[in-house]
Fold this sequence. Notes:
Layout: E1 4-7, E2 14-17, H1 20-43, E3 61-65, E4 77-82, E5 86-88, H2 91-94, E6 96-98, E7 106-110, E8 113-117, E9 127-133, E10 136-138, E11 148-153, E12 161-169, E13 180-184, H3 191-194, E14 199-202, E15 208-214, E16 220-224, E17 240-242, E18 250-261, E19 267-279, E20 283-287, E21 298-305, E22 308-313, E23 322-325, E24 334-337, E25 345-350, H4 353-356, E26 360-370, E27 376-386, H5 394-414, E28 427-430, E29 434-435, E30 441-445, E31 449-452, E32 457-463, E33 466-469, E34 473-476, E35 483-487, E36 495-500, E37 505-507, E38 516-522, E39 529-536, E40 542-547, E41 553-558, E42 563-569, E43 572-580, E44 602-604, E45 609-611, E46 616-622, H6 642-668
Parallel strand pairs: 12-20, 29-38, 39-46
Antiparallel strand pairs: 1-2, 3-4, 4-8, 5-10, 6-9, 7-8, 9-11, 12-15, 13-14, 13-16, 16-17, 18-19, 21-22, 22-25, 23-26, 24-25, 26-27, 28-30, 30-35, 31-37, 32-33, 32-36, 34-35, 36-38, 39-42, 40-41, 40-43, 43-44, 43-45
Amino acid sequence: MPYMAEKCYFCGMRMKLLNHKDRKSGLRRLMGLALIVGILYSCASVGRIEGGAYDETPPLFLKGIPAPGALNARKKKVVLEFDEFIKLDKPGEKVVISPPQVQQPEVKSNGRKVIITLQDTLKDNTTYTIDFGDAIQDNNEGNPLENFFYSFSTGDRLDTMAVAGTVLNAKDLEPVKGMLVGLHSNLADSAFTTMPFDRVGRTDSRGHFSIRGVAPGSYRIYALQDADQNIYYSQPSEAIAFQDSLIIPSMEERERMDTTWIDSLTVDTIVRRRYTYYLPDDILLRCFKEIAPYNRRLMKSERPTAKTFSLYFNAPADTLPRLRGLNFDAHEAFVIETPTGRKDTLQYWIRDSLVYKMDTLQMELSYYYTDTLQQLVNRTDTLRLVSKQRPKSEKELEKERKEKEKERERRRKKGEPEEDPIQFLALDLYAPSSIDIFDYLTLSFKEPVARLDTAAVHLRHKVDTLWVDLPFDFQQDSLDVNRYNLFADWTPGDSYSIEVDSMAVHGLYGLFTDKVKREFKAKTLEDYGQIFFNVHGADSVAFVELLDGSDKVLRTVSVVDGRADFYYLPPGKYGARLINDANGNGVWDTGKYSEHLQPEVVCYYPMLLELKANFDLTQDWYVNEKAPDKQKPDEMKKQKPDEDRKKKEREQRNKNRNNSSSSSSSRNSGRGYSY
């Protein structure tokens, strides 16, 4: 029988078979091979191979061109090499080159290398530093090489001094991430507004910054949220910070103890090592935005419904605009509402049905706007407002009439009242069943009120078994014309009722309210707790804001004789911040660079307080005891450190890996494999 060439099913290799006998022999050999493979397979882990522990070692820097610390370097291309494949995380945000570059440099990774190409001409006798922060990461696990920077000099001297500190938001002491911090050797105030920084750094997620490669001398330091990337303060909308005192870099020799270990329990050697430490390292910058001069103008006008129209300005004004109707009489024709509480958005409710039934309203609007000289001047525009609600056609009205007729006929046959049910003015009554003793009642409507009869509103107090009329104050809300507030003195633990008679309130468009009654009870004193602060170190005029766990202001009290007391607090967690009220106006005020005016100082109580019912807390508060960046409790900070985020991500990866391994083991169990 001739030779035949065939392909092996398992390995794809060609084998030759001679005859039937040889084929049987070959088949036995293949069966033996398959048996061996099966035994080996049973010894192995069945399923997806998970590998060992995750790599948590960052890349190791090997060499660079030019060499680290090189002198008289003139090439604009820098190449750094590492021991493994790397990637760059947000290089445009994290990589900071000093002195700052006007033209954006090119920063990219290629395998084990990072390549930086500078576009600006190199300055003579200048130290260049490239601060990567944590931008360099290994390619597989994303382990960052923390605080890595690289420097060289175009002259015969390498400047090595550094300054460091923290940038916080002046209003709430939040760490400010990604803010540019720079030094000016030009000490004139105008340098910050006309010239790029000499040396720069950038804040991390904790608000920390360091500026390296600094030469000896005196500097002014600034922080800048550089919106237009010109490396100086040019727009009022940019957040800034500045320090009044000069920065004078220095260094000193320090000593530390380094310990080597034989194992985890046994110390081998303790070695004293001397090193150079750079100062200052505790610069604090409080960043703020100035109150920018605004260009007031009319942004939009619209008539969303037949009965209303709205005017939208980009900024408020002290006075309301004046309206003159061109095809209607505008005298006392409107009820004006400011939904935002400011005079930048105005909603007009049209009183007269003859006016709101008009498809188009033409009017002359006179208002204040900002001219080219940044002065508010009077301006008059002509508006033509068309209702977005299309009036119904005769055909549609006829269709509605026939449907109503059919509905009345259906009711008549069933013995139901033929007339439509009365439509009332919707009333939303806020009167919780258990009311706080400092709270008040609220009546809210969906349209302005034309008439409200306070004699038809009855507030009663239950004394023993009798209901006694209780005096109250009734006021229209200062922000919402459709809301009315009812104030009274509640006795803790007592019962009350409020009753609004039918037709007590008439709406602007003819509807009136139905009868409403609600009973409620005031909370007892045992439902509350109190917090009393003994304040030390505050200015002569200061106030304290009580906060919830998310930094929201709940109450405000002035500091009087070193005390800030908060009564009748529901159980919960509370924080507090103090504002040194320099101008005594009762609110926090921002700064102004041109006047060397710093923002008003804010201090946080350094922990959250957990208040229980029927419990009083008295706390001594030394407002300057802790550094500002250590005051605000971590639980209240919105800007969380990147290290915490990465730790959580790593823990989640390990958890997913363990779950995957458990799932794999579960799938492989019970298959009958044995060793």
